[in-house]
Design goal:
Helix content is 43%, strand content 20%. It is α+β, with helices and mostly antiparallel strands. The chain has a 4-stranded mixed β-sheet, with helices on one face. A hairpin with a 4-residue loop joins strand 3 and strand 4. Helix 1 crosses helix 3.
Length: 110
């Protein structure tokens, strides 16, 4: 899986750290750090097994959605009680739409 090294959300340049390994918490596979403008995505699961490309893509999109939420919505979705689930469901749906509709990439090219 190849992820971009950086992406821009609003006026923020966000670094993407992949692969990253969360040694301190085995239950985390991705993280958006607003203070560092950084997204981190793990390449292994809690058991040390390599994660699938589809799982990595969903995690990456999940963290991108957090970055969008914090940039444009002051983190309102992320801070809600069910916010993490809402973000995850949106990431799953976005991954499916992007994966199953190759022609979408041409819509966003300038």
């Amino acid at each position: 899986m190849i992820l971009p090294k950086t992406l821009k959300v609003g006026s923020h340049q966000i670094s993407v750290v992949f692969p990253h390994h969360f040694r301190e918490r085995s239950d985390v596979c991705g993280q958006y750090d607003q203070s560092l403008s950084e997204i981190r995505v793990d390449h292994v699961d809690a058991c040390g097994n390599m994660r699938s490309d589809s799982s990595i893509l969903v995690t990456f999109l999940h963290e991108v959605l957090h970055a969008i939420d914090y940039t444009y919505n002051r983190g309102r979705v992320s801070r809600r009680k069910d916010g993490e689930d809402d973000i995850d469901q949106l990431a799953q749906g976005l991954a499916q739409v992007l994966r199953d509709n190759e022609g979408l990439a041409c819509l966003i090219k300038e």
